[in-house]
Specification:
Elements (H helix, E strand, L loop, with lengths): L2 E8 L3 H4 L5 H10 L5 H6 L5 H4 L2 H25 L3 E6 L13 E4 L3 E3 L11 H7 L16 E3 L2 H13 L5 E3 L10 H10 L7 E6 L9 H16 L6 E7 L4 E3 L2 H13 L2 H5 L3 H4 L8 H11 L4 E9 L5 E11 L4
Parallel strand pairs: 1-8, 2-7, 2-8, 3-6
Antiparallel strand pairs: 1-11, 3-7, 4-5, 9-11, 10-11
Length: 330
Amino acid sequence: MAKIVLGFGSSHGPTMRTQPAEWDKLAERDKKDPRYDYAEIARGAPANIADEIRPEKKQERFDATQVAIGKLNDVVKGAKPDVVIVISNQHSVLVDDQLPVMSIYRGESLSDRVAEKPREFDERTAKMSGIPVPELFSRKKHEPRTYPAYQPLADHLIDSLVDQGFDVATWNALRPEHGVDEAFTSFYDFYNETCTIPMVPLMLNRYLPSQIKPARAYALGGALRRAIEAWDSDKRVALMASGGLSHQVLDESLDHIVIDALLENDADTLGSLDRHRLNRGPGTPETLNWITVAGAMDAGIQIIDYIPCYRSLAGTGHGLTFGYWDGASA
């Protein structure tokens, strides 16, 4: 039977890829984001926010991020997974897209969207993370990249989850202009640069109203574990929670509630998180991905680092988080 060898969680997004000197550009985008009231967010900014966005502080936190990526990269490589289930959310959706609560991609391969922008590394960043800069990161902007998927596991998960009472939608193909974005391809950007490990994307919708509730996400994780353990295969399986924690509105208090609950495998706290608070920041619902993996691993997480990266006087930014669960506990 298949074996879960690792569960891990990693933030993704421009804060991890962008030099701190350029974070002001991200802050300018925050001011214009229609998904929240920037002026209202500014009224609740931390009292020491001016200190948090000093250039030295931003550089320190960017550097810590690269170190955390390198450490988690070592953990993933050490686990030697044969296939990875990446739990995340499609970011850009089209107006006529259907948005199922949960869905699994079962195609034979994956392509990123036509306008996907490659990761930009400088030598210093690459040295800190310990990750080489392969040719795939220097591809032209409009040149889509293909990644390996794994239909046998996808089909097994769909069958098993439906049998367990989870109504899972399926994707057989993705629109070329849609593709998969960095929510999923960040696994290859940061943790499998050779793009040799196949991926099964499990997509949790991040948008209201059809957004999975925290308790249901935790229960889904348990069902995933049972499905994997019942898979008639000798494959070594890893689960990745991609995204989170709070952003674009950085909520350190919420992040620490989540992290403390992950450390203790506190299913009650994870399952009862305030849905309104989870949706205060447009990216914060990605926390649900971590809750799902926590349900699958049914053990406390080992946190590599939590790095609150502020970028504006309003307190916008990203609570970058990196951690893993030992597969032996699954």
